Amino acid sequence: MENQQNDKIGEWLRERIPSKIYNLWFNTIRLESIKDKEITLTVANLFIKDWLIKKYDTLFKKMVEDIFGTGHIYKLEIQGISPESSTTKKSRKKLIKKRPLLLCEFNKEFTFDTFVVGKSNELAYKASIEVSKFPGEKYNPLFIFGGVGLGKTHLMHAIGQKALQFNPDLKVLYTTSERFMNDMISAIRSDNIMVFRDKYRKVDVLLVDDVQFLIGKSGIQKEFFHTFNDLFNLRKQIVITSDRLPHELDDFQERLTSRFEMGLMVGIKPPEPEIRYTIMKSLVAKEKVDIPDGILQEIMMKADQNVRRLKGIITRLIAFNSLTGQEITVGNCLSIISSILPDDNKGDPKTHLRVKTEYIKRIVAEEFGIKLKDMLDRKRKIALARQVAMYIMGNSNIPVKEIAMSFSRVRSTVIYSLSKVEKMLNDGNNPALASKIKEIEKHLEKKESKVEA
Ligand code: ADP
Ligand code: MG
């Protein structure tokens, strides 16, 4: 009887669904039981179950009505897993030993308390908290994506530590996808692949950082896919971070990226100025140093949005202050930033340019004996200093657009200034100016080579 109905279900679905999709999602459906008016169907795993409910709920409702008559409802379960399995809350509670089994080290500084929240990261923050409260139950997998230095690793460590606080009995493992790969390779070499699998597939919460590292590594992706499936089917929590969205992971197996997309995807955007300011404030407070607010604001506007770099700047300012005993002023702070940024700043040429233009402005102002802020004035008196600064910037390959922006002038003004200084140098009547410019350029060259060394 049930076999017959099983066939009917298959037939009914096949008539309505393209065969490719049927084979992918529907071919493991079995009729498990009919009780009163409840039809229990089973499928191979949790992933398929969730997918079918999400995408085909209406279709299923229609099917049970057509085949079994109105008033029937359906329920989807997973084959071979009874509802009373060990992951249910009741049995889990009995096992609680209140003694965290640490599978990895966590960075004590990376907690939810030390994470500064704003619009740019609010969703990721909230989802991370939910996941640590309800691992495996709410957002699975949680996929956090965003650029470098925006707090992804920080959140991963925070999730791990918080989850253990809520339930010390959980097995929580943080790893990077690179470490996952290295572990796998050394397991294969030493013929220990089962130990490797045990390590990754017997956890309650698996946190895999920087999954983009697996681009182009299809063997590792395959192993990761199986790890993912095993954990997912047992309703274990998986959190993944990446510097890009799943569909932007080139060369990734589609079965893997479609699983990443299955749960919740949240992005972290570059932090808005307020977050940058608060992060600096809290660092400064922690170190108990005195950096005036004006300077923090200056840094907030000048430094770029990578929080790691921002922290680097503050750390070095603090070090500068305690090593030299010198007060931190806007002037020395700018030169510290500019001396830090070039090598700290790979991949962000824009900020580098901005800092460089600031630096040139500053030494030209010094050389001409005027205040830095006067460089922006329209007074004729300082026109030459400004034109010289523009000229030196042009000579250092700073684009005209950037120069114009840094002086809040239009491009034609910059071009005019460049040719004017050029002419003055060429007509031989301004030896003092020529040597001044040479002097400044020499100074700049020395500084650049020091930074590169
Ligand atoms: P990612 O993994 O995204 O490259 P990290 O998590 O390593 O970035 O963050 C870089 C640094 O910036 C870390 O020291 C981290 O603590 C800090 N950081 C990033 N975002 C925040 C934030 N919102 N609040 C406090 N610190 C942050
Ligand atoms: Mg990271």
Give the termini separation.
Answer: 81 Å
Radius of gyration, taken over Cα atoms and rounded to an integer in Å = 31 Å
Q: How many domains would you count in the coordinates?
A: 3
Summing up helix and strand content along with how strands pair, one would put the structural category as alpha/beta
> Overall 3D geometry?
elongated
Beta-strand content bin: 5-15%
At CATH level 2, the architecture of the largest domain is Orthogonal Bundle
Query: Quick one: biggest sheet?
Result: 6 strands, parallel
Number of helical elements? 19
- Residues in helices, as a percent range: 55-70%
Q: Average pLDDT value?
A: 84
Strand adjacency order, main sheet: 4-6-7-8-5-9
Look at the structure and name the CATH superfamily of the largest domain. DnaA protein, C-terminal DNA-binding domain
- Which molecules are bound besides the chains? adenosine-5'-diphosphate, magnesium ion
Number of strands: 9
H/E series = HHEEHEHEHEHEHHEHEHEHHHHHHHHH
Low confidence ranges: 84-97, 342-347
**The CATH top-level class label of the largest domain:** Mainly Alpha
- By CATH, the topology of the largest domain is Chromosomal Replication Initiator Protein Dnaa, Chain: A
What's this, in brief?
The chain is α/β, with parallel strands linked by helices and 453 residues long.
Question: What is the fold's blueprint, element by element?
Answer:
Blueprint: H1 2-16, H2 19-26, E1 30-35, E2 38-43, H3 46-68, E3 73-78, H4 89-95, E4 101-102, H5 122-133, E5 142-146, H6 152-166, E6 171-176, H7 177-189, H8 193-201, E7 205-209, H9 218-233, E8 237-242, H10 254-260, E9 264-268, H11 273-287, H12 293-302, H13 307-324, H14 330-344, H15 349-368, H16 383-395, H17 400-406, H18 411-426, H19 431-452
Parallel strand pairs: 2-3, 4-6, 5-8, 5-9, 6-7, 7-8
Antiparallel strand pairs: 1-2
Helix pairs in contact: 5-6, 7-8, 11-12, 11-13, 12-14, 13-14, 14-15, 14-19, 15-16, 16-18, 17-18
Bound molecules: adenosine-5'-diphosphate and magnesium ion.
